[in-house]
Specification:
Elements: E1 2-8, H1 25-40, E2 46-50, H2 61-66, E3 73-80, E4 94-97, H3 105-119, E5 126-128, H4 141-148, E6 153-161, H5 165-171, H6 174-192
Parallel strand pairs: 1-2, 1-3, 3-6, 4-5
Antiparallel strand pairs: 4-6
Helix pairs in contact: 1-6, 3-6
């Protein structure tokens, strides 16, 4: 059994895009996370939880990370930003991983590449790490929480930039979020060697059935 903890970045109406006022990072990433959960649950031997049950309610960053206790994977979905204005050039996908675990780079980079292909971003997808100022713990609260409870693989996934007009418009489309969730789920499933259960035929097979 593979156990996965999913986190939607932010809550309520948070991080509005300067490119299109209809876009809020909090709302888009909540949808993406719910779609990702549904996709992952299609696989055998895969248990999935989310850090929050309601989009409008907040939970401290560190506390969200700690929800990954006993889980194999923690993913927090976000969209990135360059300052507070519109930027037409920066669109890369970056996945932040635990700085102490080089082995986590494989899945992190696979996710970044998959998201980049799915969204059609132009700049090179990448992974990154970020330490505290003294270099003794994870900078990001959700990753610090996941690390402290012993989750082996934990990531912040930045699905391009909501300061980029093209990426913003793409992420505003519900069909695209579903496509992105499916692509993320397939990448995770490939890494953990998850498979979907065989579908039984809807009609009984008899000697007279067409070949």
């Amino acid at each position: 059994m593979i156990k996965i903890c999913l986190d939607a970045g932010h809550y309520g109406k948070y991080n509005q895009s300067p490119c299109n006022k209809a876009y809020y990072e909090s709302e888009a990433m909540w949808k993406l996370t719910e779609y990702l959960k549904a996709e992952l649950l299609e696989y055998k031997d895969c248990h999935v939880i989310t850090t929050r049950k309601e989009q409008e309610k907040d939970l401290a960053l560190y506390s969200r990370g700690k929800k990954a206790k006993g889980y194999d994977l923690f993913i927090s979905n976000h969209s990135n930003a360059v300052g507070s204005g519109i930027n037409n050039t920066v669109d890369y996908v970056v996945v932040y991983r635990g700085y102490k675990n080089d082995k986590s780079d494989e899945l992190g980079l696979n996710l970044a590449k998959t998201i980049s292909r799915t969204m059609g971003t132009k700049q090179t997808p990448r992974t990154n790490t970020r330490k505290s100022e003294k270099g003794d713990w994870e900078y990001y609260g959700v990753l610090r929480g996941a690390d402290d409870v012993g989750c082996p693989l934990f990531y912040i996934v930045e699905n391009s930039f909501h300061t980029n007009p093209k990426s913003t418009e793409w992420l505003l489309q519900d069909a695209n979020l579903k496509k992105l969730a499916k692509a993320q789920a397939e990448t995770i499933a490939e890494y953990f060697k998850l498979i979907k259960p065989s579908k039984m035929p809807t009609k009984a097979i008899t000697p007279d059935s067409p070949k």
